[in-house]
Amino acid sequence: MPTMAFKVFYDGLLFSGFTGSTNSIEYYLRRAIRHFIEDFKLSKASRTDPGVSAIGNVISVKYGDGIRLMPGMLNSRLPSGVRIWAWAEVSDDFRARAAVSRTYVYVMPWLYEDVDLMRRAAELFVGIHDLTNFQVRERGGVPTTVMINSVNVERLGDYLVFTVVGRGFRNKMIRKIVNALRMVGSNVLTIDELRDLIEMRIRRPIPPAPPYGLLLLNVGYGDREPAWFLSVDDVSYVINYLVSRWYSSLSSSFAISKILHDFMDINKLFSRI
Asked: Which structural domain range is residue 175 located in?
């Protein structure tokens, strides 16, 4: 039974999130796959919110037919703003959801926040923490404890770029972490108050930053990283899309160059061509 993995780019501003509606990215992916294969199982690495974009989200498709799904086939059935740009044939037990790391980038205008203060505050999130104050409560007893590998804050020109890496995150958690750090940098929240929120000494929900600044940059699988092959034309599509659609909204060559540089580094790392 073949199982294929794909890296997916999408512009979150055009869709109603990754899943949950007939205007979701998953809806269009399933419709494209179903054009070639009737019976299949799909796993996704991340269910991003409406407005959140991705360069390197991952899906895996397990199916029984002998046909070999390829990016060009699926891209021919996908709407503008969604593109599969890498693929790999993986073992039958591979599931996109079983990632060991997810890297998110959040870009927002710099409004004279204290960057050094935000960097010190960001260190408090690293490690294993119960981040109940930094997520939206969900039904079904979703765990609130997460492992965060790193939280970096940098100023690029007139923009702030937050990079958060961890195994997995809960509903709106990245956006709440970013907003908490911005509040510290604006002296709305002290570092001691942030520490109390992280260590659950006080209960106060933090509002999330807007979704449109968030980008899922990469998903990693450690020792089980697929041997990715690139679709060169589709990589070009992604780069051109980023430059033409997002350059004006970010209006910062520093910020967009940072994102594109990281994207190209990912290509070099995962390329098998």
From this structure: 101-213
Q: How far apart are CA 200 and CA 126, in angstroms?
A: 15
Q: Residue 145: what residue type?
A: T
Q: What is the DSSP letter of 14?
A: G
CATH of the domain at 139: 3.30.70.660
Do 265 and 192 lie in one domain? The reply is: no
Note the pTM of the prediction, 2 decimals: 0.90
Q: Tell which residue, 28, 70, 37, 56, has the closest CA to residue 242.
A: 56
User: Does 135 share its domain with 70?
Assistant: no
Residue identified by tokens 């104050």 is 133
105: left (phi over 0), alpha (psi -120 to 50) or beta: beta
User: One of 49, 130, 234, 265 is an active-site residue; which one?
Assistant: 49
**What separation, in Å, do the N-terminal and C-terminal C-alpha atoms of the chain show?**
25
114 is known as an active-site residue? no
| Residue 261, CB-side half-sphere exposure with 13 Å CA sphere | 6
For 177-214, how does the pLDDT look when each residue is reduced to its tens digit (9 = 90+)? 999 999 999 999 999 999 999 999 998 889 999 998 89
